[in-house]
Design goal:
single chain; 383 residues; alpha/beta; 9 strands
């Protein structure tokens, strides 16, 4: 085992103090940094403090996360960044021992970004005795339950970017300055509405529309409504892919059919599909920032639920990608054009589980003979 003196000899002379790049245009960052500092200052300077930040993917660092997910690699990176110790660990257990031995008397600020498993915290920053007095650990995650399970009491939901802040970030990304011709005001408002407060979307939309005309802006935003932007989908889908199968299914039901419905109108359908534990699964979706449950009564009854607009788009895109060209091969149908195609061409299949007949009044006349439903043997709900 390495001695503390060998590992950390002359540590103050060897720490790498290179500043980290945060964002090209750090709009709205200062006020949020001050809030995190206030959370860290809730305890005295001599106490160790952990702060957890949670929210939907794309609220924080909008770059694709390239941090290694192997825990031993993460431990080696921690030791390398903190004390410039380049070491190949034999095991995670060895890494825990070296981190505790080497940093237990050092005052540090450790930021663990995009944590998605409880074991990452347990193997990188488990307890109060791992680091010196006055140390702070900031954890960002999409899953609030990870923070709760680790015993973190100081938590904060990351705020979305709206109003003037959203406009400023979009203008910097799309025009490279914060002053634009007034003729763009309406289209900027449309883009901000589509982004729904997600910095990730503002950055991607602004970058894609840089140098384009108003007509090109309109066409691009109209296309986004039909087919979700691939870059946004890739980042938001990370959390979806980590869900259990039943949670994925409930989330897609909520996304495609029940967004904004009163719980009283939804619960019987979901209970029939998933049993009496559906409240438990919805609670997990809420903790993972997929849905917002506005009211939970003392007995566990949910009053209402909502979804972020882009989370809704992501879920619908998951279903669309089940079969890009043949809606009859998808698990859920809610779009009038897709349903008309399936009914007219009799292309329903056993893959269809739910259909929401949301036809605008008198807009469609469908001449069909019922054959479209013969193959939908797994259809659970026709609404």
């Amino acid at each position: 085992m390495f001695s503390r003196e060998i590992i950390f000899e002359d540590i103050s002379d060897r720490i790498n103090r290179v500043s980290l790049h945060v964002a090209k245009y750090p709009v709205g960052l200062q006020s949020r940094v001050q809030h995190v500092k206030l959370l860290l200052d809730e305890v005295s300077e001599d106490e160790f403090h952990m702060v957890g930040l949670y929210g939907t993917g794309g609220l924080g660092d909008v770059r694709e996360n390239s941090t290694p997910r192997n825990l031993k690699d993460l431990q080696e990176k921690l030791l390398s960044k903190m004390v410039r110790l380049d070491i190949k660990l034999r095991s995670v257990s060895e890494g825990i021992a070296i981190i505790k031995q080497g940093l237990c008397r050092e005052k540090i600020l450790l930021i663990l970004d995009d944590v998605d498993r409880l074991e990452q915290l347990e193997d990188l920053a488990e307890g109060l005795d791992w680091f010196g007095r006055g140390s702070g650990v900031i954890i960002t995650t999409r899953d609030k339950h990870i923070l709760t399970s680790h015993g973190i009491e100081s938590m904060h939901a990351v705020e979305e970017l709206h109003g003037e802040e959203a406009l400023e970030l979009l203008m910097w990304m799309a025009f490279k300055n914060d002053r634009v011709p007034s003729i763009y005001e309406d289209i900027l408002t449309l883009a901000i509405t589509y982004a729904s407060g997600l910095p990730l979307a503002l950055v991607i939309i602004g970058s894609n529309l840089f140098g384009n005309s108003i007509e090109e802006w309109k066409c691009t935003l109209d296309e986004y409504e039909k087919i979700f932007n691939k870059e946004i989908q890739k980042i938001l889908r990370v959390s979806y892919d980590a869900l259990e199968e039943k949670e994925q299914s409930i989330f897609l039901d909520m996304t495609c059919f029940f967004k904004g419905w009163k719980w009283a109108d939804v619960k019987n359908i979901l209970h029939d599909h998933y049993g009496h534990c559906v409240n438990y699964h919805l609670g997990k979706l809420a903790k993972k920032s997929f849905i917002n449950i506005t009211t939970i009564y003392p007995l566990g009854y949910i009053h209402d639920e909502t979804l972020h607009n882009l989370i809704e788009h992501m879920g619908k895109e998951v279903v669309r990608q089940e079969s890009r060209n043949d809606p009859g091969e998808r698990s859920r149908l809610w779009c009038p054009d897709d349903m008309v195609q399936v009914l007219r061409e009799n292309t329903g299949t056993s893959k269809i589980e739910m259909i929401y007949m949301n036809f605008p009044s008198m807009e469609f006349e469908i001449d069909w003979n019922g054959e479209a439903f013969k193959k939908t043997t797994k259809l659970k709900t026709l609404q």
